[in-house]
């Protein structure tokens, strides 16, 4: 009787378990390049985990510093494995502190939770890793950040910010919009790994 109960229990466990279907960052990067993304791409409907199988994200992990237009930037990137709810992704998250020439902090997200993070990674686009950035959303400050570690110098990274052009501006929450200066430069900035 015990063996029949054991076999029945094991059978029910096997049936109830949903197999994890793993896709890679490389597969999703390749899919983005195709006109017909379903052709030759992984079965996107069944993917449960997008994995960094080649550890490409590791090159970004750490503290990076740089200066641009009289501001000092310190960006902390960390890798999270299997992050998400329905589909889990390996991603890079970023927090930063920005200081002016006098050393006064003008922006600090180092203590923010993962839900209110500055940078949220997506995937690779050629050699660059694309992340979404939200700063002062009331002043339409959000967009994509492209980070790329130099092949010949893994301690040097370029960062480029492409600000979203669409959005609803609420003048009550951003009264100085006409003179508002985004936190990140829209020109390439060089960061050095610490």
Brief descriptors of the model:
2 helices; 194 residues; mainly beta; 12% helix; 40% strand
* Low-pLDDT residue intervals, each spanning 5 or more residues: 8-17
Tell me what portion of residues adopts beta-strand conformation: 35-45%
Spatial extent as radius of gyration: 21 Å
Count, helices: 2
Question: Helix and strand succession?
Answer: HEHEEEEEEEEEE
Pairing-aware structural class of the strands and helices?
A: mainly beta
Protein name: DUF6705 domain-containing protein
Organism: Chryseobacterium rhizosphaerae
InterPro entries: DUF6705 (IPR046551)
Pfam family, one: DUF6705
Topology:
Blueprint: H1 2-16, E1 22-24, H2 25-33, E2 49-51, E3 62-68, E4 71-83, E5 88-100, E6 105-108, E7 119-125, E8 128-134, E9 142-149, E10 156-163, E11 189-193
Parallel strand pairs: 1-2, 2-5
Antiparallel strand pairs: 3-4, 3-11, 4-5, 5-6, 5-7, 7-8, 8-9, 9-10, 10-11
């Amino acid at each position: 009787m015990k063996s029949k109960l054991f076999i029945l229990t094991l059978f029910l466990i096997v049936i109830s378990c949903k197999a994890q279907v793993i896709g890679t960052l490389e597969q999703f990067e390749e899919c983005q390049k195709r006109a017909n993304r379903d052709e030759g791409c992984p079965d996107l409907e069944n993917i449960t985990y997008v994995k960094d199988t080649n550890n490409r994200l590791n090159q970004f992990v750490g503290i990076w510093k740089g200066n641009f237009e009289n501001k000092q930037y310190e960006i902390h990137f960390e890798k999270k494995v299997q992050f998400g709810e329905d589909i889990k992704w390996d991603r890079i998250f970023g927090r930063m502190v920005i200081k002016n020439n006098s050393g006064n902090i003008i922006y600090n997200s180092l203590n923010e939770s993962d839900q209110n993070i500055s940078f949220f990674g997506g995937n690779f686009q050629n050699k660059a890793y694309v992340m979404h950035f939200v700063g002062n959303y009331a002043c339409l400050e959000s967009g994509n950040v492209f980070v790329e570690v130099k092949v010949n110098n893994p301690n040097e990274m370029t960062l480029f910010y492409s600000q979203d052009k669409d959005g609803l501006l609420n003048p009550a929450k951003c009264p100085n919009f006409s003179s508002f200066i985004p936190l990140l430069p829209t020109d390439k900035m060089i960061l050095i790994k610490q």
